[in-house]
Amino acid sequence: MIRWIKNKLRSWVLDEPVLLKEATIGSQVAANRIDSTGFNLRVYKASGGTVIETNVYDRQKDRHHTGLYVITDDKDLGDELNKIITMENLRA
User: Helix %, strand %, coil % for the chain, to 5?
Assistant: First the structure.
C-alpha cells in the first residue's frame, strides 16, 4: 500500500504517466505505461444540430490542435461521432 502511494505521489510530482505494472526480466526492469494522451471531445447542443469540438495535444511540438465539426439534426449523431473519431485517429 505504501509503495502504491509513493508511486502515485512521484508520478504526480514529476508529471509522469502512472506505472501500471513492473516486471523484472533478467537484469532489466520492464514497465508498462500509458504514454498516449489521446484526444478530447466536447459536445455542444445548438439550434439545428450539434457542434463537436476536438482537442489533440502534440507532445513533440508542444501544441494543441483544435477542430470543429457540425452535425445537423437530420444525421445520426452516433454514426457521425464514429466518423469524427476515426478521422482524428487517422491524423495522429
Answer: 30, 45, 25
